Amino acid sequence: MDSAAPYLTGQAAPSPSGPILGLLTGTVHTIGWLVTYWWVLALAAVIVWAACEAVVRRLARKASAERMALELLPSRHFDPSLEEIFRRGVQLARASTSMPWWAPRRAKSVQIRLRADGSSPLRYRIEGPAGGERLLSITPFGPNVTVNRARPILDKPRRHVVRAEFILRGTPTSPLREVPLDPDPLQPLIDAVCDLRPELGDLAELRLDIQRSPKWALRARRLQLMSAARRAERREAQRAAREARHDATGAEDSLTWQLQQLVTGKQGGGGRRLVVPALPRRVDRDEALGKLAEDDHLVRVQLLVMCASNTEGRAEARLAQLQAALDVFGGRSRWAMRGWRLGPWRLGADRWPSRRGFERRWDLGHCQPPRPNWVRLEELTGLLKPPTVHCRLPLLAGDLPTFAFGDPELLLQGIYRGPDGRRRLVATYAAETLFEVGVGRAGGGKTERALAQAIGWAHAGGGLMFVDPHRDSWPRALPFLAHDHLMERIALIDLNANGPHPQVSSWNPIGMHHGQRAHEVVEAVTDAYASALGWDDASAPRALTILTASLAVLAAVNEAACQAGQSEDQATIFHVRALLTDPSFRSAALAAVEGRLDHETRSWWQTVFPILPPDAFAVVLNPIARLAANPVTRAFLGQPAGVYNIRAAMDHRMIVWVCPGGNGPTDRLITALLARDLLRAVRSRRDTPEDQRVPFRPYFDELITLTGAAPETIASMFEDFRKYKVHVHGMTQLLGRLPQPVRLSLVQNASTLASTAGSQSAIAPITAEWGEKPGPAVVAALDRFEHYMSLTVGGRRVGPVKISGPHLDDVFAHHARPHRAAELEQFALATAGTASLQDLTARAADQLDRVSGFLARHTPATPAVRLHKPKGYQ
């Protein structure tokens, strides 16, 4: 009864198709609404995306604010192995994750900055999370790379800026080209910025961001690649089957096949041949995925480049050079500039809409490449380390200053030709150019370069001494020194006695009128004799003792004469003969200075001298007799109060040209006396506070000649003079012909080491100091006036670099005054206190009488010292 109720009351039973119809109706209405109001969903999606992007950007910006920067400075001998570079790459990848958990992926990266702005060839910086600083500070490169905490770089705005982003193009699974470490993979990039000019505002910077690859993206990419590989195999199998069927059909329809059927009598038998279709080949995973097959050491990179300049066109040209440099890394996969070119325009990072995103990533260090850019660490070997020993670095203005005429802080070195062909005069800082050595064949340009440097130093107000045994340098330098502000400072000591009426200066090596200390004078003259004549305590002890005792007496006589105001009555070294052979002169001298001699010297004259045989004096008197036989040396050394005073010349910034006159035995003795006196004078500067010592530069041309006379003296100069602000410049044809003490001292202490062309055997000792880079064969092939040299700038060695020696007629052409050369020579002779050779020779001959008269007037009334032979002496 209850079950029939709905029928009895006239109500319809529910249809099972009702809910389905309602569902379909609702779906249709929903689709209709979506079609009509699609913009509502799109707007909502955009709002949600914008909100999420704003949050992510805010978090990324906050994370980027906590980044740090390190600068890596490689040594000259930095030569890492592949394993060391790979370990560095692993460190960089690990450091990219040293971020807070909330940091977005775009901020989790480490950035390598390669920057060239004129301060250095290529600055190498690492920027990354602050939490990775400890990991990145300790590199696998060891002590060959110095890691310093770097400050932020603030760039001045440039008028012309171009930007570019490089992405990987080509086969995505193929690696970049494997670039060897020798030459350095960074060489193309450095060559691209080697002609950068900071005065024009040139700037070039490349930034490589490295971050770990996202696993989900990598898996999706692998699935895509595998699916593509399988589809390609299926297409290949289908193509092979079609070709097989086509070949079979063609063979059956051919005349040859029909004739074969007629001959064999098998027409129509068997039907057409069965063709088995080719099966798809199994896809090899490693082959299909290539470098993406494994997760290990796979990173995602972003490569951004910016070039700027204040000169139109230079930034664009620099970008093109960098693009060409990156082509070196290209193979089946390569770096390509992102964007499209439409005629003269390029739509890329410099145009809307990419520019804003580029600048945000550039400023904040965010890694958001438009495509995955997956690479393995092995592909980035060339960029994971600073420049190595195999990299040829350009010489920038910051590496070697540009010479400015008249600047006392700079010392001219030569002419450097840059990679762009520009030539500039380069210099070193005078304060740290302590010693220089120039080696090379005769006529190669050593002396010309030294003259240019000396003339530049003189015009800047510096004092110098140029010692030239052959005198060729003096007439060469004369026109360039003929200036009013220099004439009063120049003195010429010329012992060549040229012309019909030669003029000669004067010098008394044992004179005391300049305030010298007697024992220092005696020691200097004795050591000069010993050096020139080869005396030492083993071979000539008696000669050394006799000469020392004689000079001590004569120095005491001169000291007494100067104190009495009679410096014109001083004795000279020629009076050693009278002291040893004339009893009356000897007695008067000893009596006059008895109170001035120490006990040992007085005792020697009283007890030892009387027992010496007469032939004991010959070894001392013979060199003095040779000096006396030469009118020039007799006149030069025979004056009581000589004008030559190298200590005063140093203190008053004088320019002294000394021409000893040759390289014979007498000339070598003169040279030894001058060199030893220079050593004594320099050491006497200890009485002057260091900050008050005036810099002075002796130039020694023909070191072989000079060191033949005084090897130990020249060696001591290269060892001691730095302390007294006296800096020696030496030139020689053969380093091997120098005495060993001199050779070792100059190579050890040389701030500048230069070589012109020459034989390979002669140049080999110099190139050995450079590590055979360049080798002797390269240096031996140099043209005239070309040098390879290593220099010291800012406390570090620069070079060896190829530099053209300055030619006076080119470098100082505007300063030549040939019409005043004769006037300057007269000034130089007058400053040196010269007189005619005849007058000086006559005065030297009469000097013994004046000294004897002085002794007679100043001999005390007490009995003279008696020299007697002891009992038993025969």
Report on the architecture of this protein:
Helices cover 42% and strands 16% of the residues. With 874 residues, it is of the alpha+beta class. The strands form five sheets. Strands 1, 2, 3, 4, 5, 6, 7, 8 and 11 form a nine-stranded antiparallel β-sheet that branches. A hairpin with a 2-residue loop joins strand 9 (340-342) and strand 10. Helix 12 (446-459) packs parallel to helix 13, helix 15 packs antiparallel against helix 23 and helix 24 (703-709) packs across helix 25 (711-720). The longest helix has 38 residues, at 215-252.
Layout of helices and strands:
Elements (H helix, E strand, L loop, with lengths): L4 H5 L7 H20 L1 H27 L2 E8 L7 H14 L14 E7 L6 E7 L3 H5 L7 E5 L10 E11 L16 H6 L10 E10 L2 H38 L2 H10 L20 H5 L8 E12 L4 H13 L6 E5 L2 E3 L2 E3 L6 H11 L9 E3 L33 E8 L5 E7 L6 E4 L6 H14 L3 E5 L5 H9 L2 H4 L2 E5 L8 E2 L13 H16 L7 H23 L12 H6 L1 H10 L6 H10 L9 H12 L1 H7 L8 H6 L3 E5 L5 H19 L12 E5 L2 H7 L1 H10 L8 E4 L7 H10 L2 E4 L4 H10 L6 H5 L5 E8 L2 E9 L3 H4 L9 H11 L3 E2 H22 L16
Parallel strand pairs: 14-20, 14-21, 15-18, 15-19, 16-18, 19-20
Antiparallel strand pairs: 1-3, 1-4, 2-3, 2-6, 5-7, 5-8, 6-7, 7-11, 9-10, 12-13, 17-24, 21-22, 22-23
Helix pairs in contact: 12-13, 15-16, 15-23, 18-31, 21-31, 23-24, 23-25, 24-25, 25-26
